[in-house]
Model the fold of this input.
Amino acid sequence: MKSILAMWSGPRNLSTAMMRAWENRSDTQVWDEPLYGAYLRQTGIQHPMGEAIIAQNESDPAIVMQQCATPNADSFSYQKHMTHHVLPDYSLDWLAGIHHCFLLRDPREVLLSYAQKREQPTLDDIGLPQQLRLFREVTDQLGHMPMVIDAKDFLRKPKRYLEVLCEYSGIPFSSAMLSWPAGRRESDGVWAEHWYDSVWKSTGFGAWKAREGELDHKLLDIYREGDEIYQELYQYRLV
Done:
């Protein structure tokens, strides 16, 4: 059986471009936000294309989590997870035996990007409290800290970080991870039409540059709370 890497992040966090890199390998199968349907069905939260997401995805979290914990027979498994999709009442026993990486991004940049796609986000919407909770749980289960990568660091040296991630996951690095064809993928979730326009145009990782713009005053409290959590996780990042 092949190994599994679960990548844990919030939205607008380089997560889909990272998924593209892994999918461009010939030996890897990717899974785009496995728990999204279950999350929307259980919470009733209104998201763009929410009805279609629930209709086209398994919405029983127990079934999804069992599938997430089951290795593929002949391909490495890469799972792109949103941390806020893991609700507090979900069992986390399935996290054992899986490689985990936590992908961070400055919450200012996350909020500037997210607010363009969905108005009035909350702190829970960008997944930082849940990311910290899962980080602590995974650390307890593994007996050591999982890998933590900051998006800014990654974009400055993508090859270096991908090499480390591959070694961590027990597979050889492939230069195919550094670029990919533009366009949609069959593996993209139905929500891609709303969220993935920039990724569909991409052919690789762009150089990091600070996101321009000022946060709406309504988002400042969310940013301050989020930054405290971000800084706590940031200290553990791979440098």
The chain is about 40% helix and 10% strand. Residues 164 and 173 are 8 Å apart (CA to CA). The domain at 4-234 is CATH 3.40.50.300 (Rossmann fold).
